Amino acid sequence: xxxxxxxxxxxxxxxxxxxxxxxxxxxxxxxxxxxxxxxxxxxxxxxxxxxxxxxxxxxxxxxxxxxxxxxxxxxxxxxxxxxxxxxxxxxxxxxxxxxxxxxxxxxxxxxxxxxxxxxxxxxxxxxxxxxxxxxxxxxxxxxxxxxxxxxxxxxxxxxxxxxxxxxxxxxxxxxxxxxxxxxxxxxxxxxxxxxxxxxxxxxxxxxxxxxxxxxxxxxxxxxxxxxxxxxxxxxxxxxxxxxxxxxxxxxxxxxxxxxxxxxxxxxxxxxxxxxxxxxxxxxxxxxxxxxxxxxxx
Amino acid sequence: xxxxxxxxxxxxxxxxxxxxxxxxxxxxxxxxxxxxxxxxxxxxxxxxxxxxxxxxxxxxxxxxxxxxxxxxxxxxxxxxxxxxxxxxxxxxxxxxxxxxxxxxxxxxxxxxxxxxxxxxxxxxxxxxxxxxxxxxxxxxxxxxxxxxxxxxxxxxxxxxxxxxxxxxxxxxxxxxxxxxxxxxxxxxxxxxxxxxxxxxxxxxxxxxxxxxxxxxxxxxxxxxxxxxxxxxxxxxxxxxxxxxxxxxxxxxxxxxxxxxxxxxxxxxxxxxxxxxxxxxxxxxxxx
Lengths: 297, 287
Hints:
The structure holds 2 protein chains of 2 kinds.
Chain A: E1 4-8, H1 21-24, E2 25-29, H2 39-52, E3 58-61, H3 66-77, E4 83-89, H4 95-107, E5 112-117, H5 119-132, H6 140-154, E6 158-160, E7 168-171, E8 174-179, H7 185-192, H8 206-213, H9 216-221, H10 236-245, H11 262-276, E9 283-286, H12 287-294
Parallel strand pairs in A: 3-4, 3-6, 4-5
Antiparallel strand pairs in A: 1-2, 7-8, 8-9
Helix pairs in contact in A: 2-3, 2-8, 6-7
Chain B: E1 2-3, E2 7-12, E3 15-20, H1 30-44, E4 49-52, H2 57-68, E5 74-80, H3 86-98, E6 103-108, H4 110-117, H5 119-123, H6 131-145, E7 149-151, E8 160-162, E9 165-169, H7 176-183, H8 197-205, H9 207-212, H10 228-237, H11 254-267, E10 275-277, H12 278-285
Parallel strand pairs in B: 4-5, 4-7, 5-6
Antiparallel strand pairs in B: 1-2, 2-3, 8-9, 9-10
Helix pairs in contact in B: 1-2, 1-8, 6-7
């Protein structure tokens, strides 16, 4: 249930430098097939559709961020049973982030399964296992996604996650979405393992995309590319929108969960990964093109 | 009745009353009004300007405006001696280095100041329910001794929905530092973004703010003073500004802050929020 098709041509090192990322990596958003409801209704439709797509117990990967908490709130609102799965660093280096997940689960009587990892070992040596299997990413978070998929698969469950929100960037005065071939790693893992997990809830349907693009705030911001110049991964408009819809949700700083291992582990490892996989470059897709694909332009 | 360039306030029969002045000219965009305000402050003083740089985007925006308008200034950074606010002020250090801004670092014994140090101001009659206000007094006192004119970059509206109405808190807690300025006959600038009706009103006219003010749902959970819309607006006009998390500078001494604030609220229970509807403020401003 991912609302786009993708194709990455993994060309040999002797060939790819002569090509543009646009030629090697293609994303085609699926067109809208029905009337688009408001965003909240589309979220609820998506969560119901996901729930109906599986007989397995649902494990929601909760990092402590607002994306996964929104998905948890949708599950609760829809009376869909689920367990939470939270990956915690043994040395407590992501505690700032995961403490929000702990608190949410406690307050809402959600069974929470905590999985401990030795962050230093996993992100320096553990990821090699996946690389040897052909999964290539320049972002260590994607290997963590594979670990979560594998863990939940072993538990006999269905993995659900709150990734996939739209983050905008202005490139040459045009507002775009950023995609990277690394992004599809987990989707490839699911395909290769014949496993129907969905860690990318916000990519669930074209109608969900449209309803987000139709929100007042998003519409206003998309009229002015200045809002997204030098943007980084933290989407401020998303925070505004989530808290508008769930005012009871605790406000928190955007955390990646890597803040405390950023300097010593994440930065050096990702520098090395970028050297190993230089072909995995960012693809910027204009929002206007996305809308065209969706059939709403 | 106390008069500032942007608002009047008085405390009559136990009730705090504050009113905004009407705009007197056509509004310009937020960035232009910031430039106008920088120039107005620079033209109003012969003293060296000390811009208080916390590491946040508010002071950085004003610093960028000063640089753009070639207004000489000195950055002043208050650094906790134990390094407990370094994660925040590091942005100010980096900024001063990048733009070669002449700056002064004042080391503060933070544990001492925020527990016993503030008592000096309390004994002088300044009542606040948060330690931040005493820090403001300390900043002004420091710059006063240096013979300068200080700027602290506060004053932008932080919206909260109260009883389904979008409001801002403009109560007694807002003015103790203004009282300090008055009593010491000192001219410094505490609320840069409220310096004049036009800069204040232009914020309300920003398209994002204008849109959000139409729906109280946007501000139902804004109790933590995290004004996301302000961040987006600042970055829209100053895209070159480094993006950063929102800090209050007290995260490293949160226990001290919480304990001291609890004590202050116990000492001054009459300091309560005074929620003023935005519709009323806009009426007063004439927008």
